[in-house]
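Minimal example, chain plus pyridoxal-5'-phosphate.
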Amino acid sequence: MSAPAPTPPEATTAIDWAAIRAQFPVLERTVHGKPLVYLDSANTGQKPQAVIDAVNEFTAHHNANVSRAVHALGSEATEAYEGARSTLARFLNVRRDELVLCSGTTFALNLVAYSWALPRLKPGDAIVLTRMEHHANIVPWQLVAERTGATIKVAELTPEGELDLDGLWRLLTPEVRLLAFAHVSNVLGTVNPVREICREAAKRGITTVVDGSQAVPHRPVDVAALGCDFYAFTGHKMCGPTGTGGLWGRRELLAQMPPFLGGGEMIKEVRFEGTVFNDPPMRFEAGTPNIAGHIGLAAAAAWLDGVGMAAIEAREQHLLAHANAALTTVPGLRIFGTAREKAAVISFAIAGTHAHDLATLLDLEGIAVRSGQHCAHPLLAWFGVSATCRASLAFYNTEAEIDALVAALHKVRQLLL
Ligand code: PLP
């Protein structure tokens, strides 16, 4: 296993992480009579009080629909919702009129699939994906391929779980129109070299779609600097409410795309003879959006900004190093994914035990980890395993919680073997 990069001391010592953790009410609770140890943040992240308050404040005092009513509450709601778009655009360093708000990465990737890829691809064209993709970045492309006659090619991994870049470059042949890949793997934690990949794709005229679900919550992400064409993210993994997130797309691409869903808000004029669609991003936001949710998501982005994404990344690297060292004491434990650049996601198995049994017994100790295939069947099949356990860390975790996981693993291993 390669050693993680050393953490700059000032990044971890200047911040009172205990005070930050104290802002997450759920982390105070007990489970099965034990203090909750929440190690499932790659699945969904916990929410600080500031986010809970923002949602409640809007719902209690400003609730109205957006972009429709001229009354005071309607204006307040529209202002707050569009203000949320501006905050999120600043957080990702993109233009606000290039940011489509939607229910999360799954919606965002389907939007690109149906509005960008479906009208363009034809038999003979190819889509390139990678072995480490979440199902949300596989299945929409399969649906497009079935309907257009395009084919799908898969970029493979090294045994450490890094992308085999030479292999990827070889796949980028003239018939490839689109390359879709994760910024950070939800199973392996691998951080992909997004800029380099997008640069190579752009040289060949290939459109790039980046799944940023596991990157945006854990590191500074300057989308404009990445050189991609589309970037998808999901709110509930970045301290925001469920059912929130977005798609950033280059203006010239969004402008050419037909709507994905039809309804209110996405039109300029509707007559029975024909409809004039709104400009992006509204063109892709049919119907009443998740107003309170996106106001909460903007509060999450502002709150994360206040802590500092660089400090969050450094803190999580520190916790990852602690976990990697502590887990070596557990006999028979294998970690899947040891990339040189890796986020704090640790998928593991213990020889002779089943992941679901491990996770069930850990739960009785108050420790929440995920077990199963992590919405990544092709990746698990490649490793030749039917399931793993996954401990995914966030800045609000502590060394003591990691030590509790390791102590519990020693205990449950003995029970199971
Ligand atoms: N992509 C990755 C890498 C993920 O980890 C997830 C969620 O687990 C998704 C996509 C799907 O996100 P959502 O269910 O929020 O749309």
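The first strand starts at residue 30 and ends at 31. Residues 1-12 have pLDDT under 50 and may be disordered.
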